[in-house]
Amino acid sequence: MQVSNMQTLYIKKQGEPEIAITANHQFAFLNLVNGTPKPKMNTYTPTGIDGQIQQGAITYDATTVQADFLINARNAYELDLLEHKIYDLFSSRTVMRLRSSVSPALVVYCYPQPFTMTRVDYAEKSFSVTFNNLSGFRQSIVNSDEIFKFNGNYQIGLNLPRDKDYSYHFKSNDFNVYNPSDVDIQPLEQRHDLVIKITGTGNNMVLTNTTSNETFTYKKGLTEGQTLTINGINPFLDDTSCGIDTDHGTISLVKGNNHFTVSGLDNPDITFSFPFLYF
């Protein structure tokens, strides 16, 4: 069977280099299909009232990703060898990272499920592998603070308007952080990844997202050479947990622009690092 599709699938197992599968003579990647979003409601039915009532926020459930392939061996012996290589490739005890040449800057972290092959001809088989995407999202191949360091990290479709200048590294007390994701970045409610690193000198530093009306206060002093890190909802001074010295505030990012101010800090140097999330 002649394969005209020249898409490439990139597979990276944990701790191993990324490999590419394209449309060659023996083993052809045909297509990668991402599952649709799965909104999940939490409802209850009150007695004596029509309908149901939604409780809390709507969340998104895990989705699936399907990759389609074709084996075109020269004979039965080569077919048997290729099947063994394929079973080894798609067997993993740990998470796998997938991306395709259609959207090379978007990745999905997933787990392969059992699959079977269908014979097409004497030495030709087709098969599809379904992967469980537990997060329910695709995400940028690198975090926000690395997105513009290499052209391969960026592509059309990341929701980054061309009329804006983007930075996730700031050296002022007033700046804007742009979240191009399809959802808000919520470390507290949804356990999303968001790491904020802060250096500078001062006392009683207050970081405020005026867009979401959220604040984080570090009640002690910061000196030169120290780094305050807010990792999700957990603050650290250098490598030591320092939640007791904060107001236990949390910072999230709404979709689009987020305006920040910083008080109580001189010579600020602040980095926001988070993956962009997409359906």
From TrEMBL:
Domain Siphovirus-type tail component RIFT-related positions: 31-132
Pfam families documented for this protein: Sipho_tail (PF05709)
InterPro entries named among the record's database cross-references: Siphovirus-type_tail_N
Name of the featured protein: Siphovirus-type tail component RIFT-related domain-containing protein
